[in-house]
Amino acid sequence: MRSTINTDKIGKLGFGYMRLPRNDGEFDWEHINKMADTFLKNGYTYFDAAYTYDGAEFALRESVVKRHPRDSFQIASKLPITMISDEKPLEHFLETSLERLGTDYIDFYLLHGINSQANKLAEQHGVWEYFSKLKEQGKIRHIGFSFHGPADDLDEILTKHPETEFVMLQINFYDWNNPKVNAKKLHEITLKHNKPFIVMEPLLGGKLASKDSPIAPLFNDFDSNASLASWALRFVAELEGSFLTLSGMSNFEQLSENIALFSDIKPLSKDEYSVLEKAVEALRAIPHIACTDCNYCKDCPENINIPALIGLYNDFLRHKTETNLIGTYNWLTNGRGKTKDCTACGVCETACPQDLEVIDTMSKLSRMFD
Fold first, then answer.
1. Are residue 115 and residue 47 in the same domain, yes or no?
2. pLDDT tens digit string along 319-346?
3. Cα 69 to Cα 265: distance, rounded to the nearest angstrom
4. How many Cβ atoms sit within 10 Å of the Cβ of residue 101?
């Protein structure tokens, strides 16, 4: 089945609503509205949310749906396969998303974070047939899925379900030849099936654009005028088959920088690719846990702040010392679960799209700090 997506009207940059600016835990509406308005004013129209993203669909309703003509933007949201139950049947998720978003249709509706195993569950629940029915009814415009898994799984799913119009893939220069992600192979499979794709995690949760990263000096020495984020975004922006790069922009500065970059994307030179290769070597030389701070593990029954604590453990791995970390640990666990409270229930590891060994990490931290 050939995709019917009109990519010309979307623009190459998508606005992810997962990491919006907040003040004291509450959405900073003035800031968010300014970001959304500027995004649309510059010709970009794709906004990304999900049923499981804390407040994202509601924020889209308030900042975009209520304030702009419905035909001037596209909304993407996602159905979490693993949450389907007798209490929350299949229909619950779209109906809830539509109510939160304040709209009667979703432009891009995705199965959220699937692999071969999750797809089998989707097939058991009749999700694919349900999606096709929703498209016929006009409640969704395009069928797709976000993917976290091995390349063979992607090939299998696209072969079995040609009704897929697009996919969302984790692609960045670090994961391009990373055996665990194998982004290059994933890219090749989408081309094989003639499916356009969206790039997610181009900055690997911001880690490829951090000023504190050991790769920052490599980029700055080569071109002190280029932003750190520009290296990663230029790597993915011109990949064949890509119609959108999704960025979880959390402030107006990041939004402005990305708009400026995508308004005049320049291909990477041979010398710049060499710098990226050195950056990958430098990152792989540092032991770390590849958490992207997606917060899919937020439903920990013991209320443990898992992403922040994994970040703390990465600080320990980087500096090989616990000095000054105990204070941060106490702050991160103040009013929340401590790592010793982990019961190894597995909720976090089931939800983790990176397939991280979260339980083992919590155990190691507990031995250090509890």
1. yes
2. 566 656 777 788 788 889 999 999 999 9
3. 29
4. 22
Q: 293 in a domain, yes or no?
A: no
Token pair 């349900």 is found at: 130
Task: Read off the pLDDT band of 284 (50, 70, 90).
Answer: confident
Residue 79 is assigned to a structural domain of this protein: yes
User: What CA–CA distance (Å, rounded) separates 129 from 148?
Assistant: 22
For residue 348, give both structure tokens.
């976090």
Residue 238: domain span: 7-284
- In this structure, the answer to whether residues 156 and 17 fall within a common structural domain is yes
Taking each helix axis as running N to C, give the angle between helix 252-262 and helix 228-237, from 0 to 180 degrees, rounded to the nearest 10. 50
Please report, for residues 35, 76, 200, 289, the alpha-carbon distance to residue 146 in angstroms, rounded to integers and kept in the order given.
25, 11, 9, 22
- How do residues 16-32 score in pLDDT, each as one tens digit? 998 899 998 899 999 99
Residues 213, 347 within the same domain: no
Secondary structure E strands in the chain: 13-16, 22-23, 26-27, 46-48, 74-79, 106-114, 140-147, 166-170, 197-200, 242-247
Strands 26-27 and 22-23: antiparallel
Same domain, 34 and 171: yes
pLDDT in tens, 77-106: 999 998 899 999 999 999 999 999 999 999
Determine the Cα angle at 353 with ends 280 and 44, to 5°.
75
Residues 175 and 221 in one domain: yes
| Complete DSSP assignment for 297-344 | TTT-TT-B-HHHHHHHHHHHHHH---TTHHHHHHHHTTTSB-GGG---
CATH number at 104 reads: 3.20.20.100
Residue 188 has pLDDT above 80, yes or no: yes
Task: Phi first, then psi: give them for residue 22, nearest 5 degrees.
Answer: -135, 155
